[in-house]
Design goal:
Elements (H helix, E strand, L loop, with lengths): L1 E7 L1 H5 L3 H11 L2 E8 L3 H7 L9 H8 L4 E8 L2 H9 L12 H5 L8 E3 L3 H11 L13 H4 L2
Antiparallel strand pairs: 1-3, 1-4, 2-3
Length: about 150
Amino acid sequence: MERSLIILKPDAVQRGLVSTILGRLEQRGLRFAGLKMMHVTQELARKHYAEHEGKPFFAGLIEYITSGPVVVIVVSGKNVIETVRTMVGATNPVKAAPGTIRGDFGLEIGRNLIHASDSPESGERETSIFFASNELVTMERSVDRWIYE
């Protein structure tokens, strides 16, 4: 089973889209392993976005993700990285397909609502940045047999 870290960014929280986005993830059949609301500190933001340090947009990323509360989620399942990234849509909401989270709710790349891990390795790295191992749960759901073969 893969894990993906999802961050509902400050614009998603401020716009009241948390329950809508969580509902889409849950209705798709994704299994939640961790969920919390928090303020991202400068230090945590720099660690999360370390691969972008030195790029022209780095300072803006840090300012944006620390500008208000976020909701961080860990989902797990088969092919969860690809599933979530397809649901999220293109980074630029203008180019995101209708039916995706960004395509339905976003208008600008700088306010694109949601982050999702881009690989299984990123999912594990990012999960460990935002969650201690004792904050994650593993559970079997009776509905899983109706979702996975």
